[in-house]
Structures are given as structure tokens and as C-alpha cells.
Automatic annotation (TrEMBL):
Enzyme class, first EC level, given as a word: hydrolase
Name of the protein in question: Dimethylargininase
Organism (species): Streptomyces rubiginosohelvolus
Gene Ontology terms for molecular function: dimethylargininase activity
Higher taxonomy: Bacteria, Bacillati, Actinomycetota, Actinomycetes, Kitasatosporales
UniProt xrefs under PANTHER family: DIMETHYLARGININASE, DIMETHYLARGININE DIMETHYLAMINOHYDROLASE
UniProt-listed SUPFAM superfamilies: Pentein
GN (gene name): ddaH
InterPro entries according to UniProt: DDAH-like
Keywords of this entry: Hydrolase
Enzyme Commission code: 3.5.3.18
Family the entry assigns: Belongs to the DDAH family.
Length: 283
């Protein structure tokens, strides 16, 4: 019998989950009473108890996956404080606290600063330029992917690079519906991202194509339901449940998509990642 022909197909993708440490803020005072992005319409009713229930479900998912979830106390006058990702960027145990663009959110920065100071992050500072935390800063391996175009000031990119000592890759957003980087791109593991090409300038698309030639590309339908506003532990990807095509792509690539319903929080332009600040202590 002749030897079998070698199988030249790619082996199955082996993904490894890594326990994460997250900070979240219960949406006790969630409401839409002003408009600072295209998703917010104060004329539409908000069901705060439903928002709380959906948030609680997200927290339960994280805990069931073995992640650590700390919570920061919500402040009555800050309805968007639930979007903890915007509060800071935390890398290698160092925290760069957000400086918000809009007056309605400015007080969130000191609240997150105080929590981080009181909970084991002595190396911290508040950004000098507008910088909306992990809304616009996403760690991908050794790089910090940094969004600009609508919120974070491009000068904040140099500031973050000097503070963290990691290369910062600037990416320009061009569609106001995707006003933060975390609405248009998600980091799946150190070498893999998913993103929505139409949200980026031509030059930034070219950068992403060079850095991540094997990236997953989201469809317009999945982008519109904030499918890219997701979190990943390297294997489990928590994302909005309506992002069905992206979920199928993730399964094909060896990830485990877990859909959740955060439709009430989407009324303020936020979803899974917006509710989740990662606290990275180790280099």
C-alpha cells in the first residue's frame, strides 16, 4: 500500500482562554438625557431596570468563565458611567486615566482615578489630552491600537506611548456611528483582530491589512448591532447576540462566541466592551 498523501490543510486553530480581571459599573442611574453620539436620543424611553438586568447577565457570563470582576460605585449624576471601558487604560500595572471630551462625562475621570488609586494601582496619572480610555485604546500583543477622529485627541497617542513605553499605532475613524475604536475593532488574541473596514480611513485600513492580514472582517449588519464591541479571553468571545455572521466567523476560526443582549445600553451607544475595563497588572 502506498503511503497516504500528506494533508496540507491548516491544522485546527488551537485557542487558549486566559483569566481576565475586569472593572464594571452597575447601570443603577443609566438613562439617555443628552446626546453626544448618533445613537443617543433623549426622546426615546429608557428601561433602566432592563438595562440593569442585561448588565447583570454580562457580569454573570464573565464570572462563569472564571474571570475576576470588580465593580466601581455608580454616581447618580453620571448616567454613562456604566461604560467603564472609557474610564482609563491599564497596561503593565500602570493606569492612564481618561480625560473626556464632553462636559457631561468629565466627572467620570476623577471617579475612576480614585477607584484605581484605592485598589492597588499607585502608578497612575490623568491624561493631559482628550483620551477616552479603552474606548480608543486597545492592546494587541505589544502594540496599543489607538483611535482618533471623533473623541481622543491624536496628541494623546504620543502621551500614551511615552507613558506605557509601548508602540502606539494610530487609526483614524471616519464614520460617526463608530466614534470610538472599540465600536469598530475588537482584539481577539495577541495576533488576531476583527474590524469593520468602512469605519476607518483608507490609510488606516492599509495599516490594519499590513498588521493583521488574517483579520476577521465584520459585515455592515454586524457592525450596526455593535458586534465588534466585544471582549475576548483568547478563546471565549462575548459579543452582542445579534452579530450572527461574526459569531459564525469566530466559530470557524476556533473561537467560542457567547452572545448576550445589551440592547438597552445600545440606546446610549454602548455594548459589551464599553461596559468592561480590563485591569492588566503584569507586563
Amino acid at each position: 500500500m502506498s503511503p497516504a498523501a500528506p494533508d496540507d490543510r491548516d491544522p485546527p486553530h488551537m485557542r487558549t482562554a486566559r483569566a481576565r480581571h475586569y472593572l464594571m459599573c452597575r447601570p443603577t442611574y443609566f438613562d439617555v438625557v443628552y446626546s453626544i453620539n448618533p445613537w443617543m436620543d433623549p426622546a426615546k424611553p429608557v428601561d433602566t431596570p432592563l438595562a440593569i438586568a442585561q448588565w447583570e447577565r454580562l457580569r454573570e457570563v464573565y464570572l462563569s468563565l472564571g474571570h475576576t470582576v470588580d465593580t466601581i460605585d455608580p454616581v447618580p449624576s453620571l448616567p454613562d458611567m456604566v461604560f467603564a471601558a472609557n474610564g482609563a487604560t491599564v497596561v503593565d500595572g500602570r493606569a492612564l486615566v481618561a480625560r473626556f471630551r464632553d462636559a457631561e462625562r468629565i466627572a467620570e475621570g476623577p471617579a475612576y482615578h480614585n477607584w484605581l488609586r484605592d485598589n492597588g494601582f499607585p502608578e497612575l496619572r490623568t491624561a493631559s489630552f482628550v483620551n477616552e480610555g479603552e474606548g480608543d485604546y486597545l492592546l494587541a500583543g505589544d502594540w496599543l491600537l489607538a483611535g482618533t477622529g471623533f473623541r481622543s485627541d491624536p496628541r494623546s497617542h504620543d502621551e500614551a506611548q511615552e507613558y506605557f513605553g509601548r508602540p502606539v499605532i494610530g487609526l483614524t475613524l471616519v464614520d460617526p456611528d463608530y466614534y470610538h475604536l472599540d465600536t469598530a475593532l475588537t482584539v481577539l488574541d495577541e495576533k488576531t483582530v476583527a474590524y469593520y473596514p468602512a469605519a476607518f480611513s483608507p490609510g488606516s485600513r492599509s495599516v490594519l491589512e499590513r498588521l493583521f492580514p488574517d483579520a476577521l472582517l465584520a459585515t455592515p449588519a454586524d457592525a450596526e448591532v455593535f458586534g465588534l464591541n466585544a471582549t475576548s479571553d483568547g478563546y471565549n468571545v462575548v459579543l452582542p447576540q445579534n452579530a450572527t455572521e461574526l459569531a459564525a466567523q469566530l466559530r470557524e476560526r476556533g473561537f467560542n462566541p457567547i452572545g448576550v443582549d445589551l440592547s438597552e445600553l445600545l440606546k446610549a451607544g454602548g455594548s459589551v466592551k464599553c461596559c468592561t475595563l480590563e485591569l492588566r497588572r503584569d507586563a
